[in-house]
Amino acid sequence: MASATHSSKTHGTHVRMVDLIAGKRDGKEHSKAEIDFIVAGVMDGSVPDYQLSAWLMAVCWRGLTDAEAALYTDVSATHIENGNLVTQPDLHRHVKRNPRGAPSLI
């Protein structure tokens, strides 16, 4: 079961998902380490769906900077290139990179 406050040490700094949600809500730009934390948590299932939903809502309202969008894309692609799969057990589907390099449902 996922923790209610997903957290981790990132480059010697304690990172909590709830702080990233509040930061984005308040207009803060995320660092590469913070974006990697979010993507890794989604990929390994340690970020609860309700926290990801709250972060995505904050992104809808505040947006991502061009730098954040580029970092998010790069970090996500790195995880996929390393063979990590995103699974949704309720949907019984997986996301993996297709031969052309784009994410696809399998």
Please tell me about this protein's structure.
This protein is of the alpha+beta class. It has a single domain (7-105), classed as Up-down Bundle (Transferase, Pyrimidine Nucleoside Phosphorylase, Chain A, domain 3). It is 49% helix and 18% strand. It has four helices and five strands, in the order ββααααβββ. The chain has helices at residues 17-25, 32-44, 49-62, 66-81; strands at 7-10, 13-16, 86-88, 93-97, 103-105. Strands 3-4-5 form a three-stranded antiparallel sheet. A two-stranded antiparallel sheet has the order 1-2.
Order of helices and strands: EEHHHHEEE
Quote the CATH topology.
Answer: Transferase, Pyrimidine Nucleoside Phosphorylase, Chain A, domain 3
Total DSSP helices: 4
Question: What is the class in the CATH system?
Answer: Mainly Alpha
Residues in helices, as a percent range: 40-55%
CATH homology-level superfamily: Transferase, Pyrimidine Nucleoside Phosphorylase, Chain C
How many independent structural domains?
Answer: 1
Overall pLDDT confidence: 79
Looking at this protein, list some descriptive labels:
single chain; two-stranded antiparallel ribbon; 106 residues; Transferase, Pyrimidine Nucleoside Phosphorylase, Chain A, domain 3; alpha+beta
Explain briefly what this protein structure is.
With 106 residues, this protein is α+β, with helices and mostly antiparallel strands. The chain contains 4 helices and 5 strands, in the order E-E-H-H-H-H-E-E-E. The chain has one domain (7-105): Transferase, Pyrimidine Nucleoside Phosphorylase, Chain A, domain 3.
